[in-house]
Each structure stands twice: as C-alpha cells, then as structure tokens.
Amino acid sequence: MSLYEVDVERHDRVLEMTRDFVKKEIPPELVRETDRNDQYPLDLIKKLCAVGLMGVNVPEEFGGMGGDVIDVMLMYEEISKRMPVLSWAAGNITLYGNEILLVNGNREQQEKYLPKLLNGEMLFCLAITEPDAGSDAANIKTRAVLQNGTYLINGNKMFISGAGVSDITVTMTRTAESRYKGITSFLVDTKSEGYSAKSIKKLGYNGSDTCEVYYENVEVKADAIVGGEAGLNNGWNQMMNTLNSERLALSACALGIAQAAVDDILSFAKEHFKFGAILNQDIQHTIVEMATEVEAARQLAYYAARKETKGQECIKETSMSKYYTTETAKKVVATGLKILGEYGALEAVDMQRYLRDVLILSVGGGTTQIQKNIVAKTLGM
How far is CA 330 from the centre of its chain? Predict the structure, then answer.
C-alpha cells in the first residue's frame, strides 16, 4: 500500500480499536481524577502502546501499522471526546517521536528509537518555544557550540509538554547566526548532566506535564543531530516538514472536544428543556447550529488530511483547519456552558473542563493569528 493512498479499511480498524480502548480503559471518573491530580497519564500511554495504537503512523518494517495522518487524527479525535490530555500526551510518541524521526531522522536514529517508542519504553518531547520566542520560533536563543568534538547546549525553553517525563527532548538550538539557516535540532538525553525541567501549573490540559526546561552546558555528540550531519543548520526546514501533521493532529483534538460538548449538551437538553414531549425550539436550533459547525470543521480538517496523504501542497488547508477547528470548538463549548447555566461550573460536569482544555488549542502548535498569516500569504496578500 502506497503511503499516499487513503486506506479506508485501515482507517475503520483504527477507529474501532480506539473506540474499544476508550470504552474499556478510560472511564469518566478516571478523566476527572487525572484532571484534579494533574498527573501525566503514563499508564494509559503504555496501554495504548500495548494494543499497537502508538505505532499507527509507523511503517510495518519498524513494527508499526503503516498508517497515515488520517489514522492519527481518527485516534486523536476519538480519544479527545473522552480524555483530551491523553491525545496531547500521545504526541510524545506519535508526533514528537515517530513523526520527527520518520520525516527528519536518519536510518540509524529510526532503528535505534522507533521500536522503543512503539513499545512504550521511551517518550520524546519537542522543545522549541522560549520565554522570548513563541510565535516567532526563528528567534530562539538557546545555543549549541561545538567544542573539542562535542556540542555544549545552553539556554532555556518554555511551555514544553512532557519534558519532565520524556527520555529524549528534541531541542531546537542556534548553531549559526543565520535566522533560518542557523538552527539545529538535537536529540538530548534528559538524563544528561545540566538538563532540568520544572513543572508549570496551568489552566487546562492538566496531566500534560508542561514544563520550563533549562540547559546548562549540556553535552551532546554530533550523532545526536536530528538527521545526522545533513541536519546541521537545517532545523528550521525540518520543523516546517512536520508542521502539517501537527496542525492536523491538533485539529482532531479540537474536533473531539467539540463533539463531546455537542453530545453532552444534547443529553442535558433532553432532560431539562422539554415542553411535554417536544424539545424547546430555541434550544433545539442552537444545538443544530453547534452540530453543524462541528461537522463543517470536520470536513475541512479531513479534506486537508487527504491532500496531505496524497503528497499534495496543503499548507493553506492545514492552517485553515488548525485555526477553524480550534475557534469552532471554543465557540461550541462556550455555547454549551451558556445552556448549562450554573450546572456548567460543577466539577462533575465535564463542560468546564472542555473549556479549560480547548483554550490552549488555539495557541499551541501555532496561534490562530499565525495560521491566518500563513493563509494570507498563500492567498497572495
């Protein structure tokens, strides 16, 4: 099966496996407990590995399922309906491990790390953002300097998901003065002397282990450059090569949250807004609008994904998808809270958690404003 063909049979299998996993392994109370305790869902990640889902986007030669970004999206959307933070945590394998290695790594790195990622023996995370380099990622200051055959990394990263639990941090560094051609990605062992991560408390996605990361003379060898020698000063291009998949994966997370909000509010409305046997028409129409907006966003996201799997140019469509799905999800959840009224503030009601989780999706992976800037350029503006 070619990488660029859409395999409906495999997509259906991934969807069925994920639905079965969610039903068996993720009861609602576990989700609420994880949110309360802000604990990384490592046990569930290992269970996802055990059933093979963390190898969904890895070729069969490495022990994976040979899937594509559509498979990843189906899995992320289905999990996010119940436990968005698990999809976010799964990115420490599927996106920042599998995807980065397959697209940018060399054969030696793929053979060394992919089997361990698939088996749950390792977690990767991606460290780009810095205190003064968020949306402008090319402004990074963390520096790697070659001394006596070894690179010394010094600097500070911010808002790095999974940095405190991962084994490898894919670290973007400045290795030359050129803004775009002076960036190199290193595979940094988190046990290295001088590496440290400090957990950050935040509003949503509790359990994602978001950290501030410090590098103090962290030593790495040249073979830790992503892609080997060819990766030196090529980190910016490498990052661009993986952005479409990240945008689509985060689109799927937003769709999952939005669909959960629609499903929850429909159940609530059927209990609380009936006049006799008929649902209040104002509420009825509002829910119809919510469901329609989610479905429209879904069609855009999977249209963009189909272009990606076929190897077609799709920067415009993936950027549209990223901003439209996340903004739609925020709107749908806010509407759900309005309908719930005082019930929406209760910890036992998941809508308040949907709101806390969905807010970050319009920031992480490129803000809505950045996505619009990208689309504007593709339109010639």
Answer: 17
